[in-house]
Amino acid sequence: MVCTPNQIPARFSLRVDDDLLPALPVHLSGHEAALVVDHALRLERPVRLLVDWDAGGHTELSASVRAVGKDGRLTHLDLHGVDGDWRPLLAWLGTRACA
What we know:
Blueprint: E1 10-16, E2 19-28, E3 32-36, E4 46-53, E5 58-68, E6 74-84, H1 87-95
Antiparallel strand pairs: 1-2, 1-4, 2-3, 3-6, 4-5, 5-6
């Protein structure tokens, strides 16, 4: 799913160690994500993708950095698991087609 900011009913961020980095999702599926962040991340680094839904609820996805774009801002993640309220994420992924 490719997303534009006005189609995203949530705020996304990446937790890297003790840092919380705002993130803009570009692609999101059940097993991978691509996000724009302001800091380059190391490959294979464990991170948490945090989603705060506008309608309430919170979803956390454990992930690892698979690739980083040449500019250091586009980050590709492999998603490994979900914590928190997974239902809004599943509903959004299952019913939306962003292009």
